[in-house]
């Protein structure tokens, strides 16, 4: 999904579905856009490959796939290659060698490209200030954002925003709208049926063609809405108390619909929530009864969220805590 073709005669790299059809003899394949960028190629203005999210590629060693998944989850946003190597159980030198061999770039370069691409999408899709975009995309400062965009796209944020097309800017009735691009294989109606059947009452709701849920942003509540925009895009509308770390919320939204792993089960917002679902459903085979248990846990331990009653939402999902864990361990699921 992430592989691109770089045209040596033009210095541009494209997605495989780009309307431009360069001669194969003039094209060099790269496993990731970051590798094409590191080789000196720039992104095509027609197919805009920076709109794709980072995902592990088929045929790569499991070590690289695990590393890519961790990077896509933000593992290098506030850490070093050395810490990533520790998580993967290898030396930093080995990690760098394997990434260069199979991904075409180091882990750090891949993470930097991911943040730059997300910032570029926000420049296209929104009217956010450059300072807000810097922190939403995981950069430590506007200066860092400017430097990385100049390296990756050879332009300033102002110049990149001036290039966007009239139809690029997304509009939403409140909230911040962001595209969630995918490969077109998603059965959105099936995904909504699945998510509706397992939705935690007061935390998640499916209404018509829209999935909604509450989330926590550094302890403060927010809400996201996801609907179908086109055959290859979902539309995320985020209502957040702050934009810092928006790139992480977008990644979690993608995992709910398994956009980067076509055919995989639809997911939960985070690993803890997924684990609680598994514990409850392992003891409550009946789906309706399991939802009732989940709703009770949300009402007892979730953070109240005012003003979302019309959307069927009133709590955030509980966070890990002694009271909740005692409740789960003491729950006599056989009597439910």
Automatic annotation (TrEMBL):
Top-level taxon of the source organism: Bacteria
Gene3D superfamilies in the record: DNA Methylphosphotriester Repair Domain (3.40.10.10), DNA-3-methyladenine glycosylase AlkA, N-terminal domain (3.30.310.20), Homeodomain-like (1.10.10.60)
SUPFAM superfamilies named in the record: Ada DNA repair protein, N-terminal domain (N-Ada 10) (SSF57884), Homeodomain-like (SSF46689), TATA-box binding protein-like (SSF55945)
InterPro entries, A to Z: Ada-like_dom_sf, Ada_DNA_repair_Zn-bd, AlkA_N, AlkA_N_sf, AraC_XylS_family_regulators, Homeodomain-like_sf, HTH_AraC
Domain called HTH araC/xylS-type: residue spans: 65-163
Keywords: Activator, DNA-binding, Methyltransferase, Transcription, Transcription regulation, Transferase
Cofactor(s) for this UniProt protein: Zn(2+)
Membrane spanning residue stretches: none
Cleaved signal peptide residues: none
Name this polypeptide is given: HTH araC/xylS-type domain-containing protein
């Amino acid at each position: 999904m992430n592989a691109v073709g770089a045209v040596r005669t033009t210095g541009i790299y494209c997605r495989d579905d780009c309307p431009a059809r360069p001669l194969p003899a003039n094209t060099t394949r790269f496993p990731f856009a970051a590798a094409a960028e590191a080789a000196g190629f720039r992104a095509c203005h027609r197919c805009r490959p920076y709109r794709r999210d980072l995902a592990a590629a088929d045929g790569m060693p499991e070590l690289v796939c695990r590393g890519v998944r961790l990077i896509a989850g933000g593992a290098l946003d506030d850490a070093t290659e050395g810490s990533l190597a520790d998580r993967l159980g290898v030396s930093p030198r080995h990690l760098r060698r394997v990434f260069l061999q199979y991904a075409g770039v180091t882990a750090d370069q891949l993470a930097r490209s991911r943040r730059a691409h997300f910032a570029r999408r926000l420049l296209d899709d929104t009217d956010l200030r450059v300072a807000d975009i810097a922190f939403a995309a995981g950069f430590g400062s506007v200066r860092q954002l400017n430097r990385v965009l100049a390296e990756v796209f050879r332009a300033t944020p102002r110049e990149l925003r001036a290039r966007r097309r009239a139809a690029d800017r997304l509009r939403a009735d409140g909230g911040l709208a962001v595209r969630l691009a995918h490969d077109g294989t998603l059965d959105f109606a099936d995904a909504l049926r699945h998510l509706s059947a397992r939705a935690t009452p007061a935390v998640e709701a499916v209404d018509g063609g829209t999935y909604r849920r509450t989330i926590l942003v550094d302890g403060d509540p927010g809400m996201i809405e996801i609907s179908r925009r086109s055959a290859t895009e979902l539309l995320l509308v985020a209502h957040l108390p702050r934009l810092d770390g928006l790139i992480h919320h977008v990644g979690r939204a993608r995992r709910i619909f398994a956009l980067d792993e076509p055919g995989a089960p639809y997911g939960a917002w985070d690993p803890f929530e997924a684990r609680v679902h598994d514990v409850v459903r392992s003891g409550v085979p009946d789906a309706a009864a399991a939802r009732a248990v989940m709703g009770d846990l949300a009402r007892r331990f979730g953070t109240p969220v005012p003003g979302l009653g019309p959307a069927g939402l009133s709590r955030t999902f509980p966070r890990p805590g002694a009271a909740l864990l005692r409740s789960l361990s003491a729950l006599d699921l056989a009597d439910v």
